[in-house]
Design goal:
- 16% of the residues lie in helices and 50% in strands.
- It has 605 residues and is α+β, with helices and mostly antiparallel strands.
- The chain is elongated, with a radius of gyration of 39 Å.
- The protein starts with a helix and ends with a helix.
- 10% of the residues are buried.
Length: 605
């Protein structure tokens, strides 16, 4: 017992002597000039520590320092790149002997980071990235990678307050400011959940962000697994470019990270912004050279029109009519090579540019710079759309191909909402397959090569009444010059079919057929998708009574083929009837009657 008593007395005496030596003889401030010189030698920067360094010992070993500044390179607007008001770190002394780390306090207050980018491209970080002699992980004598282990880690709390990070770019005269008001971590122990909270704001050139969040974090005993549960984040974004000036976004998510396997799994319990609600899951494997992302999302109603910035009518017109002096540049799709994606998205409804669709299903796999969309389907205007597509972004000019099918669609409602064209009515089936290169708007029209066919049932051509035009022309040829009765400008048909080809911005339709109880319409034509010009040459023939389907007598023009033309533009088509054919038909009919009469008078000769 005496031996143990004197043993502990000796140990305590040794500790006391060590503390006394460090306190009275060893002054940490003696190393400040050496630290300053090393920083100056390695980076060319000036490091200043204005406050004295002070030790804390039993029951915790700690250090407190403040008034720290690190200069920016010469010629920069801000003299100091980094400044810190105060740093306090205290570690319980006795548990260290058992490989147990107990941090009673870790505080960082008043960190200011002033970053700059000069017009010549120099930044505040230049000169700070030293070349390590060996970037590999330390290895043990047998060649195996070593890793530190802790039998216990206990942090009483971490507090980071009053942090400000600013970045000024002299090339664009843009300033970005991030202010971290607070980041706190409650008592933290391995394999135990701890409370994590933050509050920050950011000021960007065109918007401001206020964000706060709170959740639970846990780190496994082997330090290889991190779990964040019920992390609730609230964001408020304001700015002139934001619809209605502000946007609130709320997120509730959980996260699992496996550092040893280099994987991450994020569960999005809920997301809400601009009346958009979503949920889903995202799995990320970041260990390979090209990371992989697998995402499955369920999204509610989306009104894209609400998300687009509003423009005044005059400004929008000026923007459309004013020529641009900037040469168009192909979109940079090199980012498609940096990640592999497997995405499955379901959307309840989408509204964009007055186009209304429901029940969207989107499935895409992107690998090595090539995106394959295996399914893109939706319900729209009483029918469905189904499409597949491929986008190859490996080259400077992207290439694409697609196959799209519309079935049972109300074509009039679709054209009115999508293109403000009120020209065609009916239930449409439409198939088209094509390919092209370049994603520039003008080149999309010029380079597209496509083939397709269409079929429209029980419809009408709006803006023209072909039977009425024939009736009016027939009446005038008969000497009746009185104005015709006002009738609806619409030509009904039971079916309209045809095929088409697209090349160099021109849609060619060689086999248009339209049938109705009164007339038949056949012919060919083109539609220019660049300037929207129409050029159709058609032939109309009467197959019933022009007085209507209930007419009892066969019309005098029965079987006569009358040329019919469509010109103008898609938004303002012009229709014309060749009245000369009617006159020739009428003259031929009268001549035939006269010949028949003479034939009878001369006894059949």
């Amino acid at each position: 017992m005496k031996f143990l008593k004197w043993f502990f007395v000796a140990i305590l005496g040794l500790v006391a002597a060590l503390v006394l030596y460090i306190t009275l003889i060893f002054d940490p401030n003696d190393f400040k000039p050496q630290i300053v010189d090393v920083v100056k030698d390695k980076t060319g920067r000036n490091l200043a520590i204005s406050s004295d360094l002070s030790w804390t010992f039993f029951p915790s070993l700690g250090i407190k320092l403040g008034g720290i500044t690190l200069s920016n390179p010469a010629g920069f607007e801000n003299a100091a790149m980094v400044s810190i008001n105060e740093v306090v770190a205290e570690v319980a002394l006795m548990p260290l002997l058992k490989k147990e780390v107990e941090i009673s306090q870790l505080n960082l207050d008043g960190l200011t980071l002033a970053l700059e980018t000069q017009k010549d491209g120099r930044t505040s970080f230049d000169g700070l990235t030293g070349q390590a002699s060996d970037s590999a992980q330390p290895q043990s004598s047998d060649g195996a990678t070593s890793s530190a282990t802790l039998s216990k880690l206990d942090i009483g709390g971490i507090s980071i307050t009053n942090t400000k990070i600013s970045n000024f770019d002299h090339q664009t005269n843009a300033t970005q400011v991030l202010s971290l008001k607070s980041l706190t971590l409650g008592r933290f122990q391995l394999d135990q959940f701890a409370t994590l909270q933050y509050e920050l704001s950011a000021s960007l050139p065109d918007l401001n962000l206020d964000s706060s969040g709170e959740g639970q974090i846990r780190v496994s005993q082997d330090l290889q697994h991190v779990t964040i549960n019920d992390f609730v984040v609230t964001n408020l974004i304001t700015g002139n470019s934001i619809p209605n000036g502000s946007l609130k976004a709320d997120i509730n998510t959980s996260l699992e990270m496996a550092l040893d396997k280099q994987t991450m799994s994020l569960v999005l319990a809920s997301f809400s912004a601009a009346d958009i609600n979503a949920s889903g899951k995202v799995d990320i494997a970041y260990g390979a050279k090209v990371p992989s992302v697998v995402a499955k999302l369920d999204i509610g109603d989306i009104d894209i029109d609400r998300l687009l910035p509003k423009q005044e009518e005059g400004a929008a017109t000026q923007k459309q009519t004013s020529p641009s002096n900037t040469a168009a540049v192909e979109p940079d799709l090199t980012a498609m090579k940096t990640v592999n994606l497997d995405i499955n998205v379901n959307v309840k409804s989408v509204k964009v540019a007055n186009l209304k669709t429901q029940n969207w299903v989107f499935k895409m796999v992107m690998k090595q710079g090539v995106a394959n969309i295996s399914q893109l389907s939706a319900d729209l205007y009483g029918g469905t759309i189904k499409a597949s597509a491929k986008l190859d972004g490996r080259n400077k000019v992207a290439q694409y191909q697609f196959d799209k099918r519309l079935s049972g669609v109300d074509i009039r409602a679709l054209l009115v909402d999508a293109a403000e064209i009120d020209m065609l009515d009916g239930t449409a089936n439409f198939n088209v397959a094509g390919k092209g290169k370049s994603l520039l708007p003008d080149n999309l029209k010029k380079n597209l090569l496509a083939n397709g066919k269409f079929e429209i049932a029980d419809g009408a051509i709006h803006g023209v009444n072909i039977p009425q035009m024939i009736r009016d022309a027939k009446a005038k040829l008969g000497g009746d010059m009185s104005p015709s009765d006002s009738t609806e400008q619409k030509t009904d048909f039971t079916s309209m079919t045809g095929s088409f080809k697209v090349a160099k911005g021109l849609v060619s339709n060689p086999d248009l057929h339209m049938a109705s109880p009164l007339i038949r319409l056949t012919g060919a034509g083109t539609a220019n998708v660049i300037n929207e010009a129409l050029d159709y040459r058609l032939t109309t023939s009467v197959v019933g009574s022009l007085e209507g389907q209930g007419g009892n007598e066969r019309d005098a023009l029965y079987g006569v083929e009358i040329p019919f033309a469509i010109s103008g533009t898609m938004s303002e088509p012009k229709f014309s009837l060749d009245t000369k054919a009617l006159f020739d038909s009428k003259l031929k009919d009268e001549t035939n009657k006269l010949k028949d009469s003479l034939f009878k008078k001369f006894g059949g000769f």
